[in-house]
Amino acid sequence: MATLFIQLSLFLFTSIQLQLTTSQSISTNIELPGSLTTSFSVIDYGAIGDGINYDTQYIQSAIDVCSASGGGHVIFPAGKTYLTATIYLKSGVILDIEKGARILGGTKLRDYPVVSKRWYVILAENVTDVGISGGGVIDGQGLKFVNKFDVKKNVMVSWNSSGACYGDECRPRLVGFLSCRNVRVWNVNLTQPAYWCLHIVRCDNTSIDNVSIYGDFDTPNNDGIDIEDSNNTVITRCIIDTGDDAICPKTYTAPLYNLTAKDCWIRTKSSAIKLGSASWFDFKGLVFDNITIVDSHRGLALQIRDGGNVSDITFSNINISTRYYDSSWWGRAEPIYVTNCPRDQSTNAGFISNLLFTNITADSENGVFLSGCKGGLLSNLKFINVNLMYRRRTNYTGGMVDYRPGCQGLVNHSTAGIIMEHIEGFEAENVNMRWHSNHLRGWNNPLDFNPSTVNNISLLRFHSGLYQ
Ligand SMILES: *[C@@H]1O[C@H](CO)[C@@H](O)[C@H](O)[C@H]1NC(C)=O
Ligand SMILES: *[C@@H]1O[C@H](CO)[C@@H](O)[C@H](O)[C@H]1NC(C)=O
Ligand SMILES: *[C@@H]1O[C@H](CO)[C@@H](O)[C@H](O)[C@H]1NC(C)=O
Ligand SMILES: *[C@@H]1O[C@H](CO)[C@@H](O)[C@H](O)[C@H]1NC(C)=O
Ligand SMILES: *[C@@H]1O[C@H](CO)[C@@H](O)[C@H](O)[C@H]1NC(C)=O
Ligand SMILES: *[C@@H]1O[C@H](CO)[C@@H](O)[C@H](O)[C@H]1NC(C)=O
Ligand SMILES: *[C@@H]1O[C@H](CO)[C@@H](O)[C@H](O)[C@H]1NC(C)=O
Ligand SMILES: *[C@@H]1O[C@H](CO)[C@@H](O)[C@H](O)[C@H]1NC(C)=O
Ligand SMILES: *[C@@H]1O[C@H](CO)[C@@H](O)[C@H](O)[C@H]1NC(C)=O
Ligand SMILES: *[C@@H]1O[C@H](CO)[C@@H](O)[C@H](O)[C@H]1NC(C)=O
Ligand SMILES: *[C@@H]1O[C@H](CO)[C@@H](O)[C@H](O)[C@H]1NC(C)=O
Ligand SMILES: *[C@@H]1O[C@H](CO)[C@@H](O)[C@H](O)[C@H]1NC(C)=O
């Protein structure tokens, strides 16, 4: 019923617009297929949908006409697979990929624009009021970009022929919104991205709801959602199952304010939530709530390396299970990981302050790591209602602290409940550590810190005991 109502009201709205246009330029008399409704089916514009022939130009025509006539929905009818090179989303257009329809990204270099920063299957740039929905699938065919399968870490295709991209970062992303306003992505299934999946850059007012992301567990840089230099982003009800960081805010050219992510389920071979490591500008006002993190290499991570300052970040109602995977991936099964040592000697440290972790439970093979650095204290950290269960369950080597990228790299260090370095103000209230006595190879103390770098610790109802 709701859908019908919206379609009807859009129809009325468009009819009025068309009347106005007609009375202003009666002689033009352009006949556009579908122009009497706000829906434009790609089939009407020539798309075949056989998954073999490219439908790029037909999809693009439908989008261009839709946008030029004031916006609306571009429909990808169910039951078909639409193979395409890069398509450009225009202002006012919602891509409606029906349940049972699939957009298939091309796998050839010539399918993508010349400039590597525009390598996306779907790209929206400098536009407003755009979205993707409909219940269908966008498929990047990521496994076709694997040169050599390896359960530790796949070796991937590199398109670094012009030298314009670096190392393991030379493949297309799936969906990108660059410098956009009012973006909505909802009820859609993003699968097999070759590289990052959903990329939000310099955007304002973005909503991502009920999006499922299925990457590949062994593919490096197979990130879920990367949010860069953007304000006012809300992510809700997402499922992310992928190899690399799942929700990853970064700052390259401007600060990032107001990001909320809640009601999500995540599994990853890297960090489930990660701020950084690109962090040249500030992060402020981020909330992560009601999230389940399963069998990940790291749970909640701040990996600040480039001098940006981070403040007012809340993590609440989060269940985490972490385990070791191969050390070629960043992460050592830490449920919570905070570090800000500068990437290299030419960078200043960023300051991290006002972090709240509340209602958190973790079942982990490693402890919490909270590490400021000489020129950059961590200040005012609060842990309230935190249950940490510690046990080993894999045969991977423990007993190491992971400062990567840069800094001191991997350092031998016995495992502790919470390791703290360079901190001013740490408050724990109702923090409960439980230890599985049979699975504690390589562990030593519940709290590990040196009073010369850690000041103002307060423990209220702090409990450490063996698991019954
Ligand atoms: C988007 O805007 C930026 C900055 O103004 C400009 O450099 C870029 O060429 C624009 N891109 C498109 C596709 O219009
Ligand atoms: C990228 O390609 C350029 C030129 O082809 C080459 O000089 C450079 O070493 C390559 N870089 C990486 C990281 O692969
Ligand atoms: C944010 O975008 C939505 C559409 O996605 C729009 O309805 C809403 O008015 C926008 N809010 C602001 C403050 O621009
Ligand atoms: C979430 O999206 C899927 C399609 O990806 C759809 O089938 C399902 O109904 C949506 N759920 C809700 C609650 O809207
Ligand atoms: C998403 O698409 C993938 C690949 O087609 C499929 O395996 C998966 O079941 C779909 N998930 C949902 C929630 O629709
Ligand atoms: C986000 O807000 C900051 C602070 O107001 C501003 O400097 C920045 O340009 C905004 N970014 C976007 C993409 O609107
Ligand atoms: C962040 O959200 C607050 C509260 O809604 C709002 O007042 C502020 O303008 C937002 N910041 C930016 C940069 O949009
Ligand atoms: C938490 O998120 C799950 C989906 O992952 C949802 O089913 C549940 O209702 C949410 N809980 C609350 C209290 O909002
Ligand atoms: C976390 O686990 C508790 C206890 O099993 C459960 O009540 C709660 O709903 C879970 N929350 C999330 C976000 O998974
Ligand atoms: C971070 O804060 C410090 C101290 O206030 C300041 O000197 C520095 O410029 C800030 N960094 C950025 C990127 O704004
Ligand atoms: C923490 O959990 C308690 C009990 O489940 C709940 O009453 C409280 O609102 C939660 N706190 C937050 C910040 O969500
Ligand atoms: C760990 O090693 C032991 C002894 O070699 C073996 O019995 C066990 O199955 C291994 N466990 C895992 C999770 O691989």
Automatic annotation (TrEMBL):
Gene3D superfamilies: Single-stranded right-handed beta-helix, Pectin lyase-like (2.160.20.10). The keyword Hydrolase applies. Keywords: Glycosidase, Hydrolase, Signal. GO terms for biological process: carbohydrate metabolic process. Residues 1-23 form the signal peptide. InterPro entries: GH28_Enzymes, Glyco_hydro_28, Pectin_lyas_fold, Pectin_lyase_fold/virulence. PANTHER family: PECTIN LYASE-LIKE SUPERFAMILY PROTEIN, PECTIN LYASE-RELATED. Belongs to the glycosyl hydrolase 28 family. This is Pectate lyase superfamily protein domain-containing protein.
